[in-house]
Amino acid sequence: YVETVNLTYRELPGRLPKEVGLLTDLTNLNLWFNAITGTIPTEIALLSKLTYLSLGRNRFNGTMPTELGLLRNIAEFDIYFNEEVGGTIPSEFGLLQSMGRINILANALEGSLPTELGLCTSLTWMSLWK
């Protein structure tokens, strides 16, 4: 089985396939600094053992799926420098009580922070500038 996928700084093009959700033993998914396009597949939410998710410095678009709130073991989430990811931060992020770090700067996000983020009792670091 696969626990870690680390494909940083590879300039990988194309979309992240929905089949990523089949890697159910994955604890670490690091796709930092590639050229991945398209929307973030909701199937990532099937990775219930995931503790680290880095989608930063890619070319994702659309909104952050509310299904990411199902990643109850996530400790660190990075989606910075995806300038076409818009909408709001899902209120479901308040369900991520294991999340200690969240880095979502340099995106096209709008609106207020969801008050539900106050439920993330493990949160010690958050970066949100545009």
TrEMBL record:
What is the first-listed, main subcellular location in coarse terms? membrane
Its annotated compartments are: Membrane
Q: Does the keyword Repeat apply?
A: yes
A GO term from the CC aspect: membrane
Q: How does it sit in the membrane?
A: Single-pass membrane protein
Q: Which UniProt keywords apply?
A: Leucine-rich repeat, Repeat, Signal
Q: Does the keyword Disulfide bond apply?
A: no
List the InterPro entries hit by this protein, alphabetically.
Leu-rich_rpt, LRR_dom_sf, Plant_RL_S/T_kinase
Q: Kindly provide the name given to this protein in its UniProt entry.
A: L domain-like protein
Q: Which organism is it from?
A: Grammatophora oceanica
